Amino acid sequence: MHNYRKEMVSMIKKLINGSWSVKEFEENDYLYFLDEVPDDYLSPDDIDFFGLIQEKLDFTSLNPDDESRKYGWMSYEEYIIFVRNLITETIKENNAISSLLEKNHQNSG
After folding, report:
1. pTM for this prediction
2. Domains of the chain, with CATH numbers?
3. Which residues pair with 61 in a beta bridge?
């Protein structure tokens, strides 16, 4: 059986360790999450975690102007920081995805 969760965490790791740019992450992860992962595969905690990463990606651009920022837009650099912080928070919650994230987070340096 394919491990979609592990594959998505691997993609996140590529983003936060600098192997992929935000654009590369978007091109690879976004449709994978929406189109490839079966609806019943992820737990509610997984859906919250990966869904928030997708949602924030929708409001990310290279250099958002002040008006865009008023509506929640962030830069690519801020997005990467957001994802790193989300991983740290999720690990602290100690839910089902925490151990997989923690293992990959420690390996990403």
Report:
1. 0.84
2. 4-107 (1.20.120)
3. 75
